[in-house]
Design goal:
transmembrane; zinc ion binding; metal-binding; membrane; elongated; about 0% strand; two-stranded antiparallel ribbon; mainly alpha; 22 helices; single chain; ubiquitin protein ligase activity
Amino acid sequence: MDYVENFRHNMRNQQAHLNHNLVAMKSIGYEVVQTVLRLPGLILLELWWRNREMTFEEISQEMLTKAPFNSYLDITTILAFVHRRDMDQSAGYILSYSVLLLSALLLTLPLGRLLRVYCHFLVLATLGIAHYMSTIYVQLEQDSQELELKLDDFVKLERHGFHFLAQLLLAVMNSFLLGLESDMARIFLTPFTIPIIARMCACPLEKLIVAHNAACSIAMFSVCIYMLNRTPRMAQYFKNAFLQLRAVFFIHGLAMGCVIVWRRLRVAELLTWTWLTIFHVRVYVEMYEKGREWRETGRVLLTSIAEATNTPLSLLALALTVSFLCKWIVDGVQLVVGGTRDHGHVLANSGYTEALTLVLLCVQTGVLGMKTEQKAFLLGLVFFVVMSALLQSLFELVEPELLTLAASPSVARGRHVRCIFVTILLFFAPIVMSTAVTAFLPLDLWFVIIASNCILTAVHSACTLFIYLIGVVEARASEPWERSDDLVYNCRLATKITELTIAILVFLYGLYTTFTVGWTYASLGVLLVHAVINIYTRIGGLVSSTRSRNAARLNLSLLPMATPEQLEKAKDDMCAICFGEMVTEARVCPLCYKEMSTGPKPKDPAEEPLLDAVFNPIGAARDLWPLGQNPGYESGFDSDETDGSEFTLGSSDADEL
């Protein structure tokens, strides 16, 4: 019985797992189909925005040179008809509004109705194919010069039967796409069989074109009747959709309503895939049609990005693409280092910060109104800024994880190796990126400022890796390493000195370019802000840190050392501040708070400090930590609230910070 129950339990688990996989595949397939079907809507909207300033004459000339179906549609005759009747402006308005309406339908319709729209497009295409085949049939019959048709042989019936069967198959396909259930409606799908039947019924050759014209008339009449029957339903659907949209904004407000519509229509994903499609088309044109070499890949990518970003819509799509890319990179790094992939805020490590930076920089510099070469240069500079911000975000994610692992020897080695690998990558990536960008960006003040930020990320990564190694050695040492805090402090001090040195070099280079190349108000403003933020504040922070360190060392040196007898009695105890063992050295720290000194009083005054260390660790910790943070803190030595008879054991001289 146990075997049967286990078998049933395993079968239920496998079935549940299979159902879960099927649901996931269905969800992914639904999103893929929806994206593919809605993608032409945004592409049409992008093309409309790019060509909205073109006149109808320019559009017609482009249609004459690039139309792939000119032989069948006879574009020349159609455009000549429009020109002769002075309908250029009206035709332009009709074409423009038709594109906007079609884009709106493709972007807003639900998936079921969107499939119906594409089915109707296919029906129109099959009707065009049927019309073309009927035209070919009439021409073949007129070229055959057979005045009298005799179907007394299977070979003679073959040509007519083939055309009739082809028209019948097209009618069956249209019936399936439209979902018609009426037999009378299906009959109206076969109008182009009339010329074939007329010819098989001995219709004269000169009258065969009349049968073809009658078939075209019946087809157009059928389309009109179908549209008249469907238009009220379409109008009712748009009315219901408008009421639903108004209800959403009425309930959730304007801002939240826009967010709901944005998410429900999946605008961000559609814009991203639209921009990627246009970008890959431009890369194909640059690499294969223009014959660019592979060593020009960097310039080709920048040129393709510039060509794919010509409108505000494509700029927004580029920003969203960068946002998704940065978010995927951050999620991947968090997965590698072992952290969670939950974002505490929508702008924290989710890519929106980089996207907002890109949009603001592009709008400020006027990228959309520039030529391709200038646009490629500025976009390269903007992407350099975005990548620098991304590397800094990755460092802010990796640094706490790495420092936490340094004090956790029980964590698996694989996680240590992954974190070290990412930190080393963050050390080399800014240097490689700064070196590579110099190949196609000039060495000016803006580039030097951005490159210095990248170099600072590399310096911080090296500092973090060095502190991690110190922590690992200290955590695995058999005895406390008294000089570890000094090494950490010196490492951080060297990092701050390096930051200040790089900032001074950037300022000097800015002064050099100002006097040699020329100056502008923007460059002077940037130098002034750089001098205040990156030089003055760092000098102040460096001086303050040094003074705090020296003051803390001085204050700690004033505290009395614990006697060997006290250390021997407290060997089973721990420090109230750092929770470490007091083995070789400890300081006696006075308490500042009488309310913290409650507890049993020892009979022997020599045991008083030991008991206070046990019963008042909070007072000791609150009293000693300000020594390392505020050099002017006097620890309440001269305060009336201080009880000089109460002491606790502090940490050693190496733990003053």
